[in-house]
Amino acid sequence: MPSFVGAFWPGLPLDSLLSTQGIMVMLLVAYAGAMWLFLTSAPKVHTMMVSDLEMARRFYEGMLGLPAADVPLHYYYNYEQTLGTAGLDPMYLSSSLGSSDRAIGSPDGLWYQLKKNTQLHVITGASLGHKDRQRHVCFDHDCLEQVLMQVQLRRIKYKVRRDQPLNFLVKDYDGRVIELAEISN
């Protein structure tokens, strides 16, 4: 009577499949498949550094109406790539690097859903801009384009200052100017 496995792999003897080496290979294949499923289903996360987290909350939740999102599972296991601050221009960093390092390496901050499988992670770490303007900085052009699209959909007044790297201004409900800028490497 032919074995069940023999129907799929006619030349494979059952004892080699059930050996220690065969079981280890099957476990590794199953683990690789599970990791692939986990990583491909994980949302793309854009990180935005802001100068004031509470004002950012009012902007992203109140003005843009972005829904809050759960922290992605891969952030709990430190799968995220940390933001390297060695190549940053000091004008983009706050005066207290200790607090921004804590925010960069942890899932703290604000989490919003931008698109179906895209999230925005808002953390502290940006310095105030010209004339004490609130500053939101990002390393990803696509992230700022999505935020600009949300601004346009809400018909909020804005002014694009530069396309490459993207830089635009928005006024919040209190009349304060918020600068959203892309940091180019």
UniProtKB/TrEMBL annotation:
Keywords: Membrane, Transmembrane, Transmembrane helix. InterPro entries: Glyas_Bleomycin-R_OHBP_Dase. SUPFAM superfamilies: Glyoxalase/Bleomycin resistance protein/Dihydroxybiphenyl dioxygenase. The chain crosses the membrane at residues 20-39. It comes from the Bacteria. This is Glyoxalase-like domain protein. The lineage of its organism: Bacteria, Bacillati, Cyanobacteriota, Cyanophyceae, Nodosilineales.
